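Progress note, sequence design subtask.
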């Protein structure tokens, strides 16, 4: 499992101390980490996050079942996605390839596909187990297939159009 994020320049470039530029010896225990918190993005209790492909939007799954989308350029909330049928904490969020859709999994065993622009729920599917991690298939413009990884069983391929699921064999 690997994680790669593309962060805006403002976030990436504030970790080096100016006095360290002239230091003859660099402390090996001093990492290239931010020393100052620039600002907070707050809106309740967040459980999981995912940047879009460009790194301009950040989706956060909340403990109340909502999904908040922050615009990193304006530092404001761009959209709040709330399903009245889901009040369970979100366990995973995933952007579609072009950033038009978000898939969220929750502790109530549900998967919800959202249209980000309209703020509309496109599909809601309930599985047999709680999904800890979910990913949309990257090959299509309109998401139709996802991979759901439950806590204690094999990964599951889920057709978001029909709701059918296939457990993948693990050897």
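Output:
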């Amino acid at each position: 499992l690997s994680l790669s994020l593309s962060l805006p320049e403002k976030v990436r470039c504030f970790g080096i101390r100016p006095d360290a530029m002239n230091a003859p010896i660099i402390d090996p225990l001093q990492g290239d980490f931010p020393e100052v918190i620039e600002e907070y993005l707050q809106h309740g209790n967040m459980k999981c996050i995912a940047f879009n492909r460009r790194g301009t939007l950040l989706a956060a799954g909340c403990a109340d079942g909502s999904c908040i989308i922050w615009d990193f350029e304006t530092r404001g909330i761009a959209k709040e996605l709330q399903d009245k049928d889901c009040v369970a904490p979100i366990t995973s969020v995933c952007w579609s390839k072009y950033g038009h859709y978000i898939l969220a999994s929750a502790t109530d065993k549900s998967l919800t596909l959202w249209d980000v622009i309209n703020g509309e729920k496109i599909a809601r599917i309930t599985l047999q187990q709680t999904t800890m991690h979910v990913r949309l298939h990257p090959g299509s413009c309109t998401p139709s297939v996802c991979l759901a990884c439950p806590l204690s069983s094999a990964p599951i391929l889920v057709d978001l159009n029909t709701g059918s699921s296939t457990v993948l064999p693990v050897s």
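The first strand starts at residue 46 and ends at 51. Work on this subtask will continue into the next period as scheduled.
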